[in-house]
Fold this protein.
Amino acid sequence: MNYYFKDMIKAVLKNKYCVLSTFAALTAASPVLCQNTLFNNGAMIYAGPSAIIHVNGGFQNDGAAGTTPVFENNGTMTIANSGTPGTVRLTNASVLQGNGTYNIEQDWINDASFIPGTSTVILYGDLQQFITSTNATFTSFNNLTLTGTGTGINRKKTLSLVSADIGLFGTLDLTDRELETQTNSINVFNPSVTAVVNNTSFGNEGFVSSAVGGRILRATNSTSSYLFPTGSSNGTLRYRPVHIKPTTASINEFTARLGNNNASADGFNVNQLDNTMCMVNDLFYHQINRASAINNADIDIFYDQITDGIWDGLAQWNTPMVSVWNDMGTVTASTSATYNDNLKPNWSDFSNTPYVLSRAKLTAPVFVCNDVCANSTGNIFTASGAPAGSSYVWSTPAGTTITSGNGTNTINVDWNASSGQIIVLDTNSAGCFSDPVFCTVNVSSPPSAAFDTTSSGFSYNFIDLSTGGASAWTWDFGDGSSSTQQNPTHGYSANGLQTVCLTAINTTGCADTSCMTIAVDALDYINIPNVFTPDNDGINDVFYINSAGLKEFQLDVYNRWGTLLFTSTDSKIKWDGRSSTGVELSDGTYFFILKAVSVTSKDYSTRGFVTLLRSGQ
């Protein structure tokens, strides 16, 4: 018996099942409102495009042994809640077909045959819904739409035991729901870019979640960017999509899955890295594959920079180095108010499926050691070249102390007596770091400073007695004066205690300082002779005014006609009885004028005569 439903009227059956069979006496030319279960037990049923079938309970399409019942729905069929949510069951050799709409509140159990046509299946329940089969029959949908208001586990629409397809012209509309494939696959064979759609409101996106072995597959036939809306509610709720953009318009198939856990748990150790990376994301990773064809594609992985951190690269597991995350080279990193993304263009190597966000090592700092002196303080070491926003981490040998600057590019170190190695690297707030730079610091022993002194009045001669290879000297005479001569002479201007220090320095800059306190206790005096005999016998050959403690001195010598013969402002210079042109002067009496003032401000200035006598005359 065949039934044709065109216009809507109600035929309410009060028994447990609303049964349509070859023995049914229902002849109404309209749809029915059934309670509990609409059970097709072998009838051939056709619902026209304007027909509305509402079942307050479940729907089972079945058939008697040896029959192939066909239920063709071209209208709108709602399997609704009446105490127990409604489930669709296709059993035995039955066929469900047509171009209509199916609104299903609970599960889809297909153990028979579903021919989708241009139909739309809407899973709208507020409890977790399953697409499943007890005999491994998978369903090929045309349009599959997931809606509802359930939260947590009740947000899920789950593929259990079987995979499912979206046909060549169909659409997968996730809205804001989770399509959980478990270890199964949702295969979208429609190559249109818009064949997969979802709600894109941040934090409320629809997504496909999969366990290891599960995936979403998409067919492509253009060079457009295809959305793979991967996510997971396993643990932390995450939506981390992938976009794949083939480089040619050939037919390809690509798959993707979000591993919402540390990749090490799945055998992809996040601590095994090639030497270009400092770390990979340990929160999640993706599995991406080219299921068919050979064309390259751009791979674009999205992440939430607020919760995931900032990443500047991508890595693939196991290739070319085995059992290691390998850097995929330069990526295009983009930022936005919602999700950042790292895009690797024209990728060709799909030999291994795990992919992860990565960070490159920071550029190693530039650092050259300078040698230090044994047991010295305030040694400065400077590194450069760290990227902006990074800081420096230093390590110095045992027995040395970083007194300041740790974390900056310049440190001060108090060193001990042994040579050793300084290590520096740079790091940033994201936890990334550079390769360390090693440098050996050699230690030099300083010289041993020592000196002695002799004096004459206020004049002191200082004698360097340093050992150990001194090559430079710095004297501090205690009165504000200094010298860099090895053996200087210094005249003091007053009596008193003076602390004299010598710093002896070697060629490597190591220094030692020795100090001595001297008592300046000299009288200022002047002694003016009245005769001299410049006859070269070594006795009284010059006119010399012996003095000490003078701060001013000028001597002028004249002949009796007032001609200036000799002048000096240095008390140590002596007149040998010659004119300013070097001519020996004759015996006689000569006139001098002396201006002399001592350091104690005593004025010894005077005028007088000196007699010049030559031997044998």
Remarks:
- The longest strand covers residues 52-62.
- The two ends are 174 Å apart (CA to CA).
- The chain has a mean pLDDT of 90.
